[in-house]
Amino acid sequence: MACEPWSGKLDLYLDGELPAEEMRKCDAHVRSCPSCAADALALVRMKREVQAAGKRFTPSEEFRLRVQRSVNTRSALGSKLSWNLNWLRTAALALAGLVLGVALSVNYVGKSRHGEETIQGEIADLHVAAMASSTPVDVISTDRHTVKPWFAGKIPFTFNLPELQNSDFSLLGGRVTYLDQAPGAHLIYLVRKHRISVLIFQERPGQGVAGDKLRAESSAAKAYSFTTETWSQDGLRYFVIGDATADDIHRLAALLKEAART
User: Fold this and answer.
1) Is 102:53 a contact under the CB 8 Å cutoff?
2) Coil, helix or strand for 141?
3) Is-contact 161 171, C-beta < 8 A?
4) Closest residue by Cα to residue 212 from 130, 116, 144
5) Element (H, E) at 230
């Protein structure tokens, strides 16, 4: 099967550890193979959850000092060195088991306190999932006057879409998507064979992202070389993400900002 040469290399591909030529070939395969794209997305999510869990449960300095005092006290009392080493080894194994158990079972316990990296990774996941889907949009139309009304009653807000005449962009359609269980609009645009996702959600406390323009740094974004631009406007949070050039992302963002002002 065409997937066999690549399925075992997805970990190395997502970590950017394949040679440049293999990275290009694997990237092309993942983009054209829904099965491998889904596997890659699952790996991205697992890697991000393990990374987040490891950071969330890093031992505090107070804990380290408490362990050190306990070791020093037992040493002062004449405890045998072998006993101390065994105790430390047992404590380290117990702590490692706790972190691993949390990493395997955690399901975004701290979603209400999204940081920039977590939000960017979530947005990258939504983009990858749409690109890997056989039906990336639920309403298929290049007409903004058809796509915008389709969302009425499906999401709790309205938005304006830009006029794309005399531009390189074309609208493919849209779908309802979710971020932290909140519904939003997911629009897909095309520019020179590159598909760009535009995601719009209601702005909520704790969901802000510092700065108007940023390059996504999550594992998903780095693996797929995505560029992301995000901003808040009139109570809505906009995300524009894709593998198009940074200039294309910026120009589409500018068209959306202008449309929101009309």
Assistant:
1) yes
2) coil
3) yes
4) 116
5) strand 227-233
CA separation for the pair 226, 195 (Å, rounded):
11
Coil, strand or helix at 212? coil
DSSP alpha helix (H) spans, the chain: 4-7, 10-14, 20-32, 34-56, 61-76, 81-105, 116-132, 144-150, 219-224, 246-261
Report pLDDT for 62: 77
- The token pair at 136 is 């990336």
Q: What secondary structure letter does DSSP report for 46?
A: H
Distance CA 56, CA 39 (A): 26
Residue 106, amino acid = V
**Residue 209 one-letter amino acid:** V
| 32-78: pLDDT as tens digits | 777 777 777 777 777 776 766 665 566 667 777 777 777 776 666 55
Bridge partners of residue 194, in order along the sequence: 191
Strand order through the sheet with 213-214:
139-140, 170-179, 182-191, 194-202, 236-242, 227-233, 213-214
Q: Which two tokens stand for residue 201?
A: 């959600």
Residue 118 contacts residue 52 (beta carbons within 8 Å): yes
* Whole-prediction pTM: 0.55
pLDDT (tens digit, 9 = 90+) per residue, 159-208? 999 999 889 999 999 999 998 889 999 999 999 989 999 999 998 765 54
Say yes or no to pLDDT of 107 above 70: no
Q: Tell me the CA distances in angstroms from 93 to 47, 98, 257, one per residue in order.
A: 21, 9, 53
3-class SS of residue 208 = coil
